[in-house]
Hints:
With about 375 residues, this protein is mostly helical. About 80% of the residues lie in helices and about 0% in strands. Helix 3 crosses helix 8 (about 235-245).
Amino acid sequence: MKRKTISNATLLGMVLLISALFLTMIHQFLMAIFMAGLFSAMVRPVHHWLTKKMGDRETLASIVTVMGIVLLVLIPLSLLITVVITQAISVGQSVTPWVQTFIDEPTAFSTYLEKVPYYDQIIPYRDLIIEKTGQFVGAVSSFLIDSLSSFTMVTIDAIFSSIIMLYVMFYFLTMGDVLLKKILLFLPLDDRDEQRLLVRFTSVTRATIKGTVVIGVMQGTLCGIAFALAGIEGPVFWGSIMAVLSIVPAFGTAIIWFPALIILALAGNFTGVIILAIICGAVAGNLDNIIRPRLVGKDTEMHDLFVLFGTLGGISMFGLLGIIIGPILAALFITIWEIYGDAFQDFLPAVEMNFNKREEPPLQSDDCEGEH
């Protein structure tokens, strides 16, 4: 028995050590593998449908599915990113001379300030406002221009990762069921808990794609069109920024379009003000309340705060892909703690919380003696 225990402990140690070394060796490909699994799970119904239509030729159906992702997702996304970077640099270059004009001609800036409420209280800080605005815009402009040099390297990495992802996707589609069965077999969990994690993963992935991504694209597109109609430079860039910011509850796209509306009002462009107020405020602003319940339903079963912090944390850790990965990790975090609670419920004490019941403090011994 002791020999068996030592053997199992040695085997477990070797498994952990070799697995750690292997994962460290391929760590630069892990994100591509993860995205391949994510996309494979999403397009699996389409793959099954194509397999039946093509006479059960699964390999051919996998090739057609992968090519469809290239044509419908990756190529349009690459073109969009190129346009966004180009317009970001253009916006940064165009804003700097505009701010420099205010710095060189303080009277022009004062003309705009006179239209702001409480002008008399703001005017003593005019020079400080001009200085800080110039520093901020200069920093933003430099960041946008410097991003051009790094964009080439990022593009090369993205292309290489996309090739790896598509290659892995092909095998996930053809033999994904076998791999998934192997993974679940090696997990020392009950089948019920494994299925619970798997269902949670797929449901949150589906809800995230349908909710966060689809609604973000719709809001960003509408607000970008509004910026174009209002005559604001770089509508694709601003629309993309608002698509990402749409994840922020309550404010969302208003973080961008509301300051733009104020600037247009100060400049006297009231046509642009009306366009932004109607398209961005009335139409795009209500998409989340109208469409999200129909798209998402009860797939996430997560509080909005978990969705928000999961998304923001995912973006900070994984970049733009964190919009998808963050909520998935948040959902798995909640699910694993629910499984823990079920597995150890016999050892966890019952908790009763009744804040309405007010307990009377116990009588002190001195008080009792005084009564006697």
